[in-house]
User: Fold these one by one.
Assistant:
Number 1:
Amino acid sequence: MARIFAVAGLIAFLLMSATVSAQDGLIEGCENISAPDEVGYFKDFATQIRNAKILYCSKTPFNVPDYPDSFVSALDHLKAIGAKDTDLSAINAALALFLQDNRMPQMVAKNRGRIEMNQAPYQVIGDIPDCDSRASALTTGGDCDQAIKEFVEIYNDGQAFYSLYQTIKTRGQIETVETRWDAFLEHSKSQTIWELALNGWLYKDSESAGFKRPPSGQWILLHPGLVIENVSDATDGDQTQAVLSLDVVGYNNWTREEWYIPSGISYNVLYSDRPDIKDWGNAVSLHFKSKYILGFSKHGDNEGWFVSIDLLESLKEKKQHLEAYTGNF
């Protein structure tokens, strides 16, 4: 028996993933609040962005306020260099759609009074000579394209800062999911090819789009194994044997942490070769920590009990295990 259990011993592959604290990232960002340097055309706008950052950082990290008015009204500052409502209407309409999802797009400054927003071109200024004249009045030697470039830099600086929380939160979600997949590979019950196919198919239908976490449970189907069974009514010397086991159907919850509470249950059939005892037996097994098994069997009128460690665990290909699930989304 000792030799069988030695063969059944497993080596755990501990997959560690570094985690980043979203709160620490926010604190670091809020310790370095500043307005864009060398502001020449839109000092008021830069001040509003700085005040928006201060408002942002005054909130609890996980209760960040909606986009401030300085973002919603940012385009009004372009009127100082000659932008008209008719020029800004298309941009305002696009921004309104983004604002519905509480997000704002990045901008890219182009020449001749134009910008790009999410790769879509927009004409900000229709009268370039007038814009150049207004820009020169704001800053000596200034021109329209320089003014628009400064506006975009100020806007993007504030936008990037205000998106910090969501960026860090998303990164944290990804890291959490990766850590949970590592735990799934480490602690879940080994699966045969057909079990991988079944559970992968069921998992595909049970999950929605997004950052998918591994399923908390797994179905057991025709899972072979080797158990140590004791039948007290058997002939002396044959009472305890290594016998073949087949988990016909069952279910296991790999997230169960308590060793003393079953993580799963399955119906088994056992085969042994003992004198005066029926070869085939029916059984029910309880799974603990997804790897250890305690079961109760019956060969005709003779009752027994058995224990096991999941032998297939030592042969489990973790990468294949992961791909069988993640390949479904």
Note: Strands lie at 107-109, 114-117, 120-123, 217-231, 240-253, 264-271, 280-288, 292-299, 302-309.
Number 2:
Amino acid sequence: MSPCCIRNAEGGEQVVVNGVPADRIQQGNDRPLRRDGEFVLYWMVAARRRRANFGLQRAVELARELDRPLVVLEALRCDYRWASDRLHAFVLQGMRDHVADFADSGALYWPYVEPEPRAGRGLLQALGERACAVVTDRFPTFFLPRMIAVAAARLPVRLELVDSNGLLPLQAAERPFARAVDFRRWLQKHLAPHLQRFPVGDPLRAKLPAAPSMPAAIARRWPAATAALLEGTATALRALPIDHAVPPAPFEGGRVAAGATLRTFLAGRLARYGEERSDPDADAASGLSPYLHFGHLGAHQVFAALAKAQDWSPLRLRPGSSGQRGWFGMDAAAESFADEFITWRELGYAVAAQDPAHDRYDGLPTWAQTTLAAHAGDGREHLYDHEQLESASTHDPVWNAAQNELRRTGRMHNYLRMLWGKKVLEWSPTPPHAFARLLELNNRYALDGRNPNSYTGISWVFGRYDRPWAPERPIFGVIRYMSSTNTVKKLRMKEYLTRWSS
């Protein structure tokens, strides 16, 4: 694939494609395609973007094949676990961007925000009864798989799930991999063909039948969100039955903010990423994970932009089978970012898709559960309850600073997130208690929580994707140990501690 084809995922020059790859499409039910329906419905739930979106691309393909208009439904329910001002505001800002993005698209975009629990029930069914088919996004964790399975059983027409999660289709990996090095070795043999199967930059550049109006009965019962609501103002959020104790992040969600973050990272921080990303004072992280999680930015867009910045083409790949880093043929900093963004991110998604226990303590490797169980009764010098942890009220200033950053911004420095998890394991009555606490803290406050990579990071604390480490220690057994004292010695973080200590 040529670099121009890669750049196309950024929304640039349109190229001829052969459609959405079959390994990206999954049939959600056995209902028929209704050729005499009024429109094709794209139910946007995870890939919340217009561009570089295989799900939207598939919906456009069906609309063109059937010569029917396209309706795009993006709904936000209020009763999902951890619903808060922070998470809602981030999604609403993306919906606000979509109102403008879809205005000239030829499709009808309908943003619906549930004002109270269960108010949105029946909306998808009502649209499905008029649709030729429903296309939605496949996402491997949180409540989305259950929600879509219920919808699939109720819809009277075909439901297709389309995977836009990563460079690698979810079903491509042959098994759940236990270590990153093993997955990297597999990627080195199998990723290249998937780099020739990018989504089109803008599926809605294709000509479609004129967009319909929303049927009056549906519009009255489930009205489109107002512009004021989509701004996510404090007044608008207060009117919703969600957690108001977790405030919006100090930065915005949506396509526009996602694109600006990506450009700023590639132009400024990428060059320092390899050497400085672990130093909290260096501010060399990408900042992309919230946008990737909510689908405001796609993996193909990130890779396309990275390839353009590196003047890269697939001819520079150095595939092999060693499992070692540094095989993309990019400079050292870009290689470091590519390994985090591709190896670790794709690993988390592949495991989430294949392992139903990926988000549970009992899904940890047997050796890890065994060693933790053997030391579960060890004495703990410090024990904190959940409220003390949540309010950053421990004896450890490094941990408190990391927790404060998470509470106030919805982000946490990547390296400190590992230490943060290890300390909760050390300060909890039992390992299962620690696992549950980390899920609660992360999923409530982190914008990139409730994601396969959240579960990757939390389960890594307890030994997943890792190996036994000597010497055997109290509480940890042979689980890898980390200390705040060594972290302060190892990293530059004076400014970080000053900023987040109070």
Note: The longest strand covers residues 70-76.
